[in-house]
């Protein structure tokens, strides 16, 4: 109990250094902190497939463990972990042609403004936003997810995607314009880039 308390008070980076030194308890603590968050990330990125999300989460931690000796002290752990996760998504898209399958299975019913009331509750807005996000191209959906759902910073996203910060900002801007156009009935929606 005391051991877990001591581990829970350490930073992610400190824990990762302990994992590199062979600590299973530190690995378990990182898993406890990030497994659920990663599984949600994969669930959204892999088309709502719970089994694929669970497998990808497992694969991410397996790769983290295999690369434990290559973790560089001072590197942001969350950025490093989500880089691994992003690369797994990218590989899955390529290997399985998942994007084509996902786009083919999306319900293509158009939204009509006459069916939508101006005063919508939060749950309805959430569902509508989810549908809009599902229809975004995969790279923009991934960018939105990293920034607004995983709450990573622009510099962290730039490192993960291996693109300049300016490109991240311009793509986020483009993504938000597309979303705003789709949700023009909801004038209060605002996301800060």
Structural features:
0% strand; globular; mainly alpha; 10 helices; 193 residues; 70% helix
Q: Would you spell out the secondary-structure blueprint of this structure?
A:
Layout: H1 2-8, H2 12-20, H3 24-45, H4 50-66, H5 77-96, H6 98-105, H7 122-135, H8 138-149, H9 154-161, H10 165-182
Helix pairs in contact: 2-3, 3-4, 4-5, 5-9, 8-10, 9-10
Compose a concise summary of this entry.
With 193 residues, the protein is mostly helical. It contains ten helices and no strands.
Bin the strand percentage.
Answer: under 5%
Q: What composes the largest sheet?
A: none
Structural class: mainly alpha
Query: Radius of gyration in whole Å, from Cα?
Result: 19 Å
Poorly predicted runs of 5 or more residues: 107-121
Could you spell the SSE succession in H and E letters? HHHHHHHHHH
Inertia-based shape: globular
Number of helices: 10
Mean pLDDT: 78
Percentage of residues assigned to helices: 55-70%
Secondary structure: number of strands: 0
Give the N-terminus to C-terminus distance in angstroms.
Answer: 41 Å
Would you write up a description of this structure?
The protein is an all-alpha fold and 193 residues long. It is 70% helix and 0% strand. Helix 8 packs across helix 10. The N and C termini lie far apart (41 Å).
């Amino acid at each position: 109990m005391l051991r877990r308390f001591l581990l829970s008070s350490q930073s992610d980076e400190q824990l990762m250094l302990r994992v590199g030194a062979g600590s299973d308890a530190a690995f378990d603590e990182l898993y406890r902190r990030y497994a659920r968050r990663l599984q949600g990330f994969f669930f959204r990125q892999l088309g709502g497939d719970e089994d694929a999300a669970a497998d990808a989460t497992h694969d991410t931690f397996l790769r983290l463990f295999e690369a434990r000796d290559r973790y560089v002290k001072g590197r942001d752990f969350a950025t490093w972990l989500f880089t691994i996760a992003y690369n797994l998504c990218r590989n899955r898209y390529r290997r399985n042609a998942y994007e084509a399958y996902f786009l083919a299975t999306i319900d293509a019913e158009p939204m009509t403004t006459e069916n939508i009331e101006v005063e919508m509750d939060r749950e309805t807005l959430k569902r509508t936003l989810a549908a809009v996000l599902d229809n975004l191209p995969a790279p923009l959906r991934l960018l939105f997810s990293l920034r607004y759902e995983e709450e990573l910073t622009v510099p962290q996203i730039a490192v993960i995607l291996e693109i300049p910060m300016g490109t991240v900002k311009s793509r986020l801007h483009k993504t938000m314009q597309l979303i705003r156009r789709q949700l023009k009935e909801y004038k209060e929606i605002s996301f800060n880039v």
